[in-house]
Amino acid sequence: MQMRAARYRGAGGTEVIVFDDVAMPVPGSREILVRVRAAGLNRADILQRAGHYPAPPGWPADIPGMEYAGVVEQTGADVQRWRPGDRVMGLVGGGAHARYVVVHEEEALPIPAQLDDASAAAIPEAFLTGWDALVYRARLSRSERVLLHSVASGVGTATVQLCRLLGIVAIGTSRSADKLARLQAFGLAQGIDTRTHSFREALREPVHAVIDTLGGPVFPDNLAVLLPRGRLVILGFLLGSKTEADLAMVLRKRLEIIGTTMRARTLEERIPLLREFEAKVLPHFVPRAPGEEPELKPVVDRVIPMTALAQAHDAMERNETFGKVVLVWE
Q1: CB 8 within 8 A of CB 20
Q2: What pLDDT, on a 0 to 100 scale, did the predictor assign at position 239?
Q3: Torsion sign across C-alpha atoms 269, 275, 281, 287
Q4: Tens digits of residue pLDDT in 94-108
Q5: Which candidate, 41, 79, 115, 170, has a CA 20 to 30 Å from the CA of 194?
Q6: What is the pLDDT of residues 282-317, one digit of tens each?
């Protein structure tokens, strides 16, 4: 059987995006076949299109997409957690921008009943990355301060909300004063417009951790704004991966530099994080009482048909978006 999928026919601009009929994946004994209804777009998809971020081994090399929301279509013989018709969401190493995706039963998360598919597709990458960065990589405690770069991104808008949930003080940078103002409603304590201010100069006091997506050009300033024994967590390098820095500061302040990515992790690494996320974080997407707002909300900037994937890439590359771009199959 075949299915429709977005593919990259080589590396380049949006002209390499095509839609083809490809072989439908077949679930193994402990895997589920998910009919994808919505899928998130991530910077990693754009980097992969440009030839800079290949899919990990075992995932489709030419079909992008790292997060999905949909319905279980078929289960393997030994699957126990799910039945056909269950609504699920989750992370994959690639292949989510297709009509179907196969995942291990332990990698899928239940979609809270109150959420539609587009909202659910905006959760996995952003909130799992934020939770892992705050709790496990930066090891932040209540009342500690964290600086979040690119705070209006999908990961940024999710991490600000998680900071509020955990009692962590969130400070963020962006090149848009309007986006920073909007983030105050999500719990941002201080916003720094880097078009007009250096974050190093604008910070009111040093921070316990920096969660960075910008990379090399800001590396020296990241080190400078950290308190002694601070943690720099590097999620990406949108501005480049090369830098020059005085490493004496790392020794003098006993700093930790931590690199992390969700995509390259093994199944064995992902499962404990997913189970904890399901138990400790997912309940906060559900209102505690009728009429109340949930403590956590996926921030969806726009919902675009999957067939308009090129336009979605263009919007993200122009930094027009606030939160997540979600693609849906019509």
Answers
A1: no
A2: 86
A3: positive
A4: 999 999 999 999 999
A5: 41
A6: 999 999 888 899 999 999 999 999 999 999 999 999
Dist CA 76 CA 40 (whole Å):
26
List of residues 6+ apart from 242 with CB closer than 8 A: 216
Q: Which residues pair with 211 in a beta bridge?
A: 148, 233
Buried b (16+ CB within 10 A) or exposed e, 149-177: bbbbbbbbbbbbbbbbbbebbbbbbbebe
| Packing angle of the helix pair 267-280, 124-131 (nearest 10 deg) | 90
Query: Which residues are CB-neighbours of 314 under 8 A, at least 6 positions away?
Result: 14
Q: Are 247 and 220 in contact (CB under 8 A)?
A: no
Tokens of 119: 């909202």
Number of H helices, E strands in the chain: 10, 15
Q: Helix (H, G, I), strand (E, B), or coil: what is residue 128?
A: helix
Buried b (16+ CB within 10 A) or exposed e, 201-214: ebbeeebbbbbbbb
Q: Are 163 and 169 in contact (CB under 8 A)?
A: yes
Give the residue ranges of DSSP H helices in 184-218.
199-202
pTM of the shown model: 0.96
Question: Average of pLDDT values for 222-243?
Answer: 95
Phi-psi region of 240 (alpha: psi -120 to 50; beta: other; left: phi over 0): left
Bridge partners (DSSP) of residue 72 are 34
Distant-in-sequence, close-in-space partners of 276: CB < 8 Å, separation ≥ 6: none
Tell me how far apart the alpha carbons of residues 43 and 138 are, in angstroms, rounded to a whole number. 22
First to last CA, the chain: 20
Task: Tell me the one-letter amino acid at 322.
Answer: F
